[in-house]
């Protein structure tokens, strides 16, 4: 095992070349499919729509390729579903020989809202460079245009900015070469008798499919990166659908391949120009390395991978335990040390306590297979952390766990401590009932947090309620026209974005694809 | 000689494949030179500047490549002189690993004005696609950027539109791979004792050089095309400077290679995707095929080319004579039938009469070498046209030739009828003296028309005045900071554009490069 040091601003990283080379060997082939538009749309502002814009569909006019477009003309192409790929078209002139370059603008959108709201109005705090657009200047016509960047869209707005008085443009062969590493060979259709659940399953599967590229990306529009929190959920859905377990394995080796000097895995990796660990380190995400490895081993029984990666998993356990106070509680702080949910006001302490216990239980599963000596230690730690939580985080008057110095009551705290199996079954059942009857003010903002809510419901036997919640929440997105599940969805505030603009939200997001896991694994 | 028909909207064209293949065989090699910036500039609005903007130069800070650029930052690079070529740079990130695409904007300008005036303010009637700009999105850093289009510039404004909060950009290896087919081997420096004239000569030569690409382009920024009116003047300068006579020959074969069904040569050709004749046909420009061929034969005595192209030249004579009325005067009309000058109010009839006679004299030069039988006919026509002009266009009271139904008096009419050698030397001398003393209201707008003015001055022996006018007019551009001569220049209205915006004017334009011809040929 050869190792090197990578300097990343002020941080130092270990690179494990054997792991990286194993990951390289697992690089999946990308399937390409050439997709034609199914129609054109007009978009109109409509406050009854979740995202405020409605697409009025027309079949693709056969005359589109005969239509001459002059400066100012625009057309919105509809590919009929959410796609990831490379866009191209054929552009020719009509009229006199083109005596000026043709300037065309393309806007790509996962949703009708991105077609309706001018990008110039964007004022979110994430980089505007994520807004998918391109301006091209064609000096010679005809030209077979192939835009060099990968886009993520259902709709493409094509606008002619300028030609000259002497010629117009005709467009043809509009297409998207879609990309995915998902191979549907092992994929069975669910054929759920409930039409909405069946649709939810299909949308889940498409969401996962479009996020499956050279790695499990979090979102093919944004951030197009391998995040550990997303990977864990994608892997769970994958075991029930595509069963491309080598892609999970590849991602685990990648995380283990570039770790911080102290051995901590990063919250996310960049793949290009080389595998680079981001300098964002999160308590919960690092621990999910352990959970993801345990789920992978449970699905595959891949002993070699367990032997290779157990030291990395164990190191996450050690580092996480290092943050536990003498009193057995994860220490809180004001910086971005744990993710849990996209929520401005959420205190992370109690949910992180839950994540830690949950992942220690996953570690114990693995230790039983490879590191028996540590099983006892892990059991002792799990008990200690559970007891400490019950003693110090439980508020008997409120009937809820509280978090942080301000003793905050949040959904996330209850859910993660239920998933940590605190208390007996009755205790957890009653806690969940209380949560349902009287939800704390600090609620849930993301499908990611909703996943854990559903998981917690199932863990206490509330499968009927879990099904209803899936229909209500993910079904709400389906009814709002989602082709793939969104990064963010709050039925009461459909415009919600933690980034300051719905335009920059991802509308095909890995952490939102888990209904297919619940429906298929638990037969909901 | 094989011929085909090309359908070009409703017009039909003859393609002469032997001529086109001869032109192909003369395709010049392009010389590439990698140019580094010489400094950076700030631009400030300054009404004392000809184009309203001043560039304040600073040497290239050694620290530029160390400087971190954040969103909103911009830098204006100065290549020190006018260039044509492909732009590139190396872009890397500074800070955390780049977690969003980098969006950069480039604006290319031949002048400081293009750096100062936002392109969004452009409202001219030529296509805005000529405004040289590019937006790029870099998904992976570092990247060696090479923009795919050829640009024409002295200055490049580089603006960082967006990155993310986690990284900035560092730029290095900023360069332009300049292109020209001009080969300076035969070029001698003039070393004129008058410093301004010496500078005018050098600027002329650079103007020609930057227009010499695969053909003689009219302007490398706009229209980047082979125009006959420009070609004629470029060829004249070329014989005195680069002596790349094969490039003239190539352009003549190209014009003869694609002619209208009736044999008329187009005013201009497009080179890509194939040789295409524009559907703009101009009385004067078609006749200049004859003049350009005569000048080429005078310079080279290339008998084969004369034999090949004389029929095309003769056909232009026939077609032009077809427009002459029974009274021996070129018929006027309201459409764009002759160019003469960029002037809204100019009547073209009398100047066109001059152009016709001038080109018939050029045809006679050629006929003497190849088609003796037609010499007498040409002489008769020349005399008939001269007499008709004197009888019907001369206004004894005004002491000027008049043009069109409204009997307009213009500089262009006098100049072209002087160049047509109407009347005796004294008559023409007096006419020019009168023009100088009392210029008609309809003046001259372009260096192109100014060329013919200088030519007319020299033709009547006013070489001293010609020199003064060159110093005043082209010297004015030099003093205004021109690296190359501009398409349009009116000292009284430096903002003048026949296209509605100075931004779209070409600032390196073929028809403006002729001082080097006058200075070198006539030893001014």
From TrEMBL, chains A, B:
**Which intervals hold domain Alpha-L-rhamnosidase six-hairpin glycosidase?**
194-521
What is a GO molecular function of this protein?
A: hydrolase activity
Q: What is this protein called?
A: Sugar hydrolase
InterPro entries according to UniProt? 6-hairpin_glycosidase_sf (IPR008928), 6hp_glycosidase-like_sf (IPR012341), Bac_rhamnosid6H (IPR035396), Glyco_hydro_78_N (IPR049164)
| GO BP term, example | carbohydrate metabolic process
Gene3D superfamilies the UniProt entry points to: 1.50.10.10
Highest rank taxon of the organism: Bacteria
Alphabetically ordered keywords of this record = Hydrolase, Plasmid
Give every Glycosyl hydrolase family 78 alpha-rhamnosidase N-terminal domain span. 37-177
């Amino acid at each position: 095992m050869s190792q090197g040091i990578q300097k990343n601003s002020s941080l130092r990283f270990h690179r494990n070349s054997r792991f990286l080379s194993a990951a390289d060997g697992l690089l999946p082939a990308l399937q390409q499919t050439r997709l034609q538009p199914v129609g054109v749309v007009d978009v109109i502002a409509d406050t009854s729509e979740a995202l405020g814009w409605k697409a009025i569909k027309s079949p693709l006019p056969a005359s589109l390729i005969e239509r001459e477009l002059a400066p100012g003309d625009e057309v919105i192409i509809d590919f009929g579903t959410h796609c990831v790929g490379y866009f191209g078209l054929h552009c020719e002139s009509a009229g006199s020989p083109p005596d000026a370059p043709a300037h065309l603008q393309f806007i790509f959108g996962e949703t009708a809202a991105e077609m309706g709201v001018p990008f110039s109005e964007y004022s979110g705090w994430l980089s505007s460079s994520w807004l998918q657009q391109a301006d091209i200047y064609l000096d010679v016509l005809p030209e077979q245009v192939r835009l060099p960047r990968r886009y993520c869209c259902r709709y493409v707005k094509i606008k002619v900015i300028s030609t000259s008085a002497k010629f117009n443009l005709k467009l043809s062969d509009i297409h998207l070469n879609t990309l995915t590493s998902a191979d549907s060979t092992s994929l069975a259709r669910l054929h759920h008798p409930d039409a909405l659940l069946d649709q939810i399953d299909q949308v889940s599967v498409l969401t996962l499919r479009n996020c499956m590229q050279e790695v499990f990306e979090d979102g093919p529009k944004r951030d197009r990166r391998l995040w550990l929190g997303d990977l864990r959920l994608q892997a769970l859905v994958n075991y029930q659908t595509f069963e491309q377990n080598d892609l999970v394995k590849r991602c685990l080796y990648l995380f283990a391949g570039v770790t911080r000097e102290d051995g901590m895995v990063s919250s996310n990796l960049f793949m290009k120009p080389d595998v680079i660990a981001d300098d964002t380190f999160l308590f919960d995400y690092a621990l999910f390395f352990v959970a993801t490895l345990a789920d992978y081993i449970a699905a595959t029984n891949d002993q070699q991978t367990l032997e290779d990666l157990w030291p990395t998993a164990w190191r996450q356990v050690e580092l996480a335990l290092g943050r536990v106070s003498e009193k057995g509680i994860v220490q809180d702080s004001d910086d971005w040390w744990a993710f849990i949910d996209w929520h401005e006001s959420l205190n992370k302490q109690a949910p992180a306590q839950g994540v830690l216990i949950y992942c220690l239980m996953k570690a114990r599963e693995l230790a039983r297979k490879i590191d028996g000596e540590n099983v006892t230690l892990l059991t002792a730690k799990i008990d200690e952390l559970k007891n400490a939580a019950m003693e110090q985080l439980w508020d008997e008057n409120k009937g809820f766990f509280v978090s942080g110095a301000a003793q905050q009551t949040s959904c996330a705290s209850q859910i993660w401590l239920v998933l940590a199996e605190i208390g007996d079954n009755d205790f957890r059942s009653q806690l969940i009932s209380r949560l349902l009857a009287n939800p704390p003010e600090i609620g849930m903002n993301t499908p990611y947090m909703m996943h854990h809510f559903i998981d917690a419901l199932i863990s206490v036997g509330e499968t009927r309620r879990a099904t209803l919640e899936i229909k209500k929440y993910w079904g709400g997105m389906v009814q709002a026209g989602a082709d793939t599940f969104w990064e963010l969805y709050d039925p009461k505030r459909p415009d919600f974005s933690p980034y300051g603009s719905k335009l920059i939200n991802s509308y095909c997001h890995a952490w939102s694809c888990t209904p297919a896991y619940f429906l298929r694994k638990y037969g909901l």
